[in-house]
Amino acid sequence: MQYKGWILGLISAILIFTGCEALKASRPVIPINEYERLIAGRIDAQYVGIDRCLSACHSHDKIRRDFEASTMGAQLSRKSGMPVVDCESCHGPGSLAIEGITPEKVEEDKNKGIETKCNYETLIDLKKLPPQALSLICLKCHTANATFNLHQWNSSQHAINDVSCSDCHRIHAGPDLIVSPKETAQMCYRCHSNIRAEFALPSHHPVPELRVFCTDCHNSHGDVPEKLLRKGVKEQCTQCHADKEGPFVYEHADLMDNCLNCHLQHGSVNNNLLQAREPFLCLQCHEGHRLSPTSDMERKVTLYGRCTDCHPRIHGTDIPSQSGKGRFVQ
Fold first, then answer.
1. What backbone phi and psi angles, to 5 degrees, belong to 136?
2. What are the distances in angstroms from CA 207 to CA 7, 198, 248, 259, 264?
3. Which of 2, 86, 227, 258 could form a Cys-Cys staple with 50, CB 3.0–4.6 A?
4. Please, what's the b/e burial string for 102-122 (b: 16 or more CB within 10 A of its CB; e: otherwise)?
5. What is the pLDDT of residue 214?
6. What is the percent of the chain with per-residue pLDDT over 70, rounded to a whole number?
7. What's the number of CA atoms in the CB half-sphere (13 Å) around residue 71?
8. One-letter-per-residue 3-state SS of the chain
9. Average pLDDT in the 48-67 region?
10. How far apart are CA 224 and CA 231, in angstroms?
11. pTM passes above 0.90
């Protein structure tokens, strides 16, 4: 009986293990054939080129000018030696969309005061694509070039939370497809409204003043560090606060490894982005002590002030105190 119980237990463990492995296995958002069709366009359509795509359409003239002036549009030249990028690279082959559109029909519509339109329903419906598929259209090119920060996009926090490339990058907004640093905060606030509230607190990093930008600390395409930080917490902070980096002869124990033990990163109601006011922040780790008493009342009551009034070199120092034990006083 014990032998049978052992066998049953082993079988159960194997089933549980294989079940967990099955849950962890990656799967397409939708069946693979349909997914391929979503990002490749109509299989029965042919590529016709940008000139034929836009020959009868004048409402897209500005879009075409902006696109041709952009980095991607510069690749339209066959002499560039780079993969050709045009309308059909994203919207799919356009032969069915312009089917039946002839110079005679364009002229006839023009005389009627109307603009000849193509059959948009035969093109890829970008507005209805899942975010992962929408990003994959961009990644067809952007993972094959030197854009190294996109190589890990699929495992990034943004991708996992259904953020697509076009949520941040407006392909037809103008010739510059890269979001300028001054625009990043307002763009990020669309999702991170809680961070916007933190920057409105009395003590905050000067992001609203456009002196610091979200991308100075965060890599929006990254995936490995926590909160998409470009570096570790201390390394990130000491890029600006180099005087706090050390190493010091007298260091503040393990607090030197993580600035967030004492500080909030975006905004705080306390000075210097502190998580709590002095001395309450320090009392979380240190026992309080009396200040030098000057009266009988002060001898009976433990008084607390701001710790940094006496210990200004709280991040670390190379100079010992008068006691020689290093009290961060000088």
1. -65, -30
2. 62, 11, 30, 19, 14
3. 86
4. eeeebeeeeeeeeebebeeeb
5. 93
6. 78
7. 6
8. CHHHHHHHHHHHHHHHHHHHHHHHCCCCCCCHHHHHHHHHCCCCCCCCCHHHHHCCCCCCHHHHHHHHCCCCHHHHCHHHCCCCCCHHHHHCCCCCCCCCCCHHHHHHHHHCCCCCCCCHHHCCCHHHCCHHHHHHHHHHHHCCCCCHHHCCHHHCHHHHCCCCHHHCCCCCCCCCCCCCHHHHHHHHHCCCHHHHHHHCCCEECCCCCCCCCHHHHECCCCCCCHHHECCCHHHHHCCCCHHHCCCCCEECHHHHHCHHHCECCCEECCHHHECCCCCCCHHHCCCCCCCCCCCHHHHHCCCCCCHHHCCCCCCEECCCCCCCCCCCCC
9. 79
10. 10
11. no
Quick one: pLDDT at residue 150?
A: 78
Instruction: Indicate the length of the chain as a whole number.
Output: 330
For 193-223, how does the pLDDT look when each residue is reduced to its tens digit (9 = 90+)?
Answer: 999 999 999 999 999 999 999 999 998 887 6
Q: Which amino acid is at 213?
A: F
Mean pLDDT score, 17-29: 58
Which of 41-45, 137-141, 265-269 holds the top average pLDDT?
265-269
